[in-house]
Task: inverse folding
């Protein structure tokens, strides 16, 4: 790994363990964070403990969101395993660090999902497993992906956006998840309670798109032109919008660009 990428990933993990909370067990860690960042930069021969493109406040908000999601799902009786992941795992660029949440419903079992059984000479008999849905959370920032209509595997699907984090899923053949829709429905209600789709023609016109739909914190804009480098500050987004997903059709492909609304 290149030194600058190693530096940014190490900063990410420092913010993951040194959370901005004060208490008997955490006060010293918080006070030591700046010192650790300086030591890290010195060890990697980096000029700046915090590179200009790394926003500490954004990272704190991101890990707040990861904790919020984890607690909200566990409060519904779901088991949650939190693991490191890179955005390359869901085919979104640039490659950035994030967290993968394996969400399991321990109260039920289903026949295990077997991807592409038609390609196997003798498909195995599915065993009973608890339902599982894998979530992929990344900090807000500009991200891009290309969806090919004739490709078997697709980039991660944007489930929604929370304050501080984008939430993605992968289609079952890639994630190897087994679910009948009920576990995902529980997740959606826990993270985006009462969310309903709404058309936003005024927002679409203000941004230069053809149409816009607001759903689960995301303004999904369909357009014929490339996305702006930066969302215009003059646009007033509807309440609850955390991100804009800009989609442009290119023949059988769709180019997606995700931009933070704040």
Result:
């Amino acid at each position: 790994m290149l030194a600058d990428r190693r530096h940014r990933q190490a900063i990410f993990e420092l913010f993951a363990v040194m959370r901005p909370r004060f208490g008997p067990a955490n006060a010293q860690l918080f006070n030591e964070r700046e010192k650790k960042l300086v030591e890290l930069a010195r060890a990697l021969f980096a000029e700046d403990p915090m590179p200009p493109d790394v926003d500490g406040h954004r990272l704190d908000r991101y890990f707040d969101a990861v904790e919020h999601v984890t607690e909200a799902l566990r409060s519904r009786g779901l088991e949650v395993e939190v693991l490191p992941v890179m955005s390359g795992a869901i085919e979104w660029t640039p490659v950035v660090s994030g967290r993968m949440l394996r969400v399991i419903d321990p109260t039920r079992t289903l026949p295990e999902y077997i991807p592409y059984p038609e390609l196997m000479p003798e498909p195995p008999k599915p065993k009973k497993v608890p339902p599982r849905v894998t979530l992929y959370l990344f900090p807000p920032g500009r991200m891009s992906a290309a969806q090919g209509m004739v490709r078997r595997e697709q980039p991660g699907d944007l489930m929604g956006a929370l304050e501080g984090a984008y939430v993605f899923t992968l289609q079952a053949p890639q994630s190897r998840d087994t679910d009948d829709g009920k576990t995902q429905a529980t997740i959606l209600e826990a993270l985006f309670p009462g969310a309903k789709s709404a058309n936003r023609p005024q927002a679409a016109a203000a941004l230069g798109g053809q149409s816009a739909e607001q759903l689960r914190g995301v303004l999904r804009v369909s357009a014929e032109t490339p996305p702006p480098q930066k969302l215009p500050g003059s646009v007033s987004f509807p309440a609850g919008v955390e991100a804009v997903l800009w989609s442009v059709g290119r023949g059988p492909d769709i180019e997606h660009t995700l931009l933070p609304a704040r």
Summary: The helical segments are 3-17, 27-43, 56-74, 172-175, 182-191, 201-207. The radius of gyration is 20 Å. Residues 56-74 form the longest helix (19 residues).
